[in-house]
Amino acid sequence: ALAARHKEVTVKYTRMRYELARVLLEEGFISNFRVDGEGIKRQLIISLKYLDDGTPVIRGLERVSKPGRRIYVGCDEVPRVMGGLGIAILTTPAGIVTDREARNRRVGGELICKVW
């Protein structure tokens, strides 16, 4: 969607996707998101963010942990992305958090993705 310069992306609603969108909004990678519909027809509509020259704010996104190969990291092994310019998103006992929050709270968990 970013490569095609779309303004919004619509995905099926799950709690995991909702929390990922919340983290991306807090970190400034997307401009907004909202939930539309009810029950099984609920959708998550994510508004993508671009710079003034039309360049996407999200320059790269890498999924790390996959259904066939889960990747877990301890609190001392949480990676830095692009020397701190990007973020890693983890699921922890404290919820879905960024790499900085995980280090501050001294928690590890499943490494979901990296965004820069």
UniProtKB/TrEMBL annotation:
Q: One GO molecular-function annotation for this sequence?
A: structural constituent of ribosome
Pfam families, per database record: Ribosomal_S8
Highest taxon of the source?
Bacteria
Matches recorded under PROSITE patterns: RIBOSOMAL_S8 (PS00053)
Gene Ontology cellular component? cytoplasm; ribonucleoprotein complex; ribosome
Its keywords, alphabetically, are: Ribonucleoprotein, Ribosomal protein
Q: Name one GO biological process term.
A: translation
InterPro entries in alphabetical order: Ribosomal_uS8 (IPR000630), Ribosomal_uS8_CS (IPR047863), Ribosomal_uS8_sf (IPR035987)
**Entry similarity comment:** Belongs to the universal ribosomal protein uS8 family.
State the PANTHER family in the record: 40S RIBOSOMAL PROTEIN S15A
Q: Which NCBIfam families match?
A: PRK00136.1 (NF001109)
Protein's name according to its UniProt entry: Small ribosomal subunit protein uS8
Organism equals candidate division WOR-3 bacterium
